[in-house]
Amino acid sequence: MKRLSLVFLFVLACCTPRVDRALWQHMPPSEKTLYVKSLLGAEKVKDAKGGTGHRYSSSPEDYVRKIDEAYARGERREPSAVFAALHD
Q1: Global pTM value
Q2: Which domain holds residue 39?
Q3: Which position among 2, 17, 35, 85 has the lowest Cβ density within 10 Å, counted as fewest Cβ atoms?
Q4: Is residue 7 part of a domain?
Q5: What is the mean pLDDT of the chain?
Q6: Is the separation of the CB atoms in 42 and 35 below 8 Å?
Q7: In the chain, how many domains are there?
C-alpha cells in the first residue's frame, strides 16, 4: 500500500497544473514565473524527444510579461496557448 501511495504522489507531482485565464490573473508574479518555467521545461523535453521546432529564447519573466500584455489586450486563451504562440 505504501508503494502505491508513493507512485500516486509521483504521478501527481509530474502533472502540469491546469491554469486558465482567471487563475492566471489572480496568481502572484512568482507563481506565474514558476508556471512559465514548467512550460519551458516541457518544451525542452519535447525537443529532447525529437522536437517541435519551436525555440523559446527569452527569460521566463519576459514570457510572463508578454502573457500579461496579451490578457490586457483582451486575449481569451489559456496561458499555455498564449505561451505556445510566443516561440521564436
Answers
A1: 0.79
A2: 19-84
A3: 2
A4: no
A5: 87
A6: no
A7: 1
